[in-house]
Amino acid sequence: MKKKKELHDEIARAAYEFHKTRDGDHGHDLDDWFKAEKIVMEKHERHAKEIGQEDDIITKEGKGFPRTVKKGGHGYSGYRG
Questions:
Q1: CA dihedral over 43, 49, 50, 52, signed as positive or negative
Q2: Is 2 in contact with 10 (CB distance < 8 Å)?
Q3: 47 class by beta-carbon count within 10 Å (0-12 exposed, 13-18 middle, 19+ buried)
Q4: Is 60 helix (H, G, I), strand (E, B) or coil?
Q5: What average pLDDT does the segment 39-62 reach?
Q6: How many CA atoms within 13 Å lie on the side-chain side of 17?
Q7: CA distance to 68, 74, 80, per residue, from 42 (Å)
Q8: Residue 31 confidence (pLDDT) above 60
Q9: Which end of the chain has the smaller Cβ count within 10 Å, N or C?
């Protein structure tokens, strides 16, 4: 997966495109961000599956939002959800 900054920038660009499709109508920034985040993350998950890394990626839910981590990464070992 891309570095955090690159991923953030990709989501920001997608959210801005949604903003532009409404001719710059304000008040939908969070909707645009969450929609863009979902699309970008799904794209990266599909790509990981296509190159055979689906077994290396898990979604871990804890307090707050789910997050995607690589198996063997920090916090995975001993996690009981």
A1: positive
A2: yes
A3: exposed
A4: strand
A5: 74
A6: 11
A7: 11, 22, 25
A8: yes
A9: C
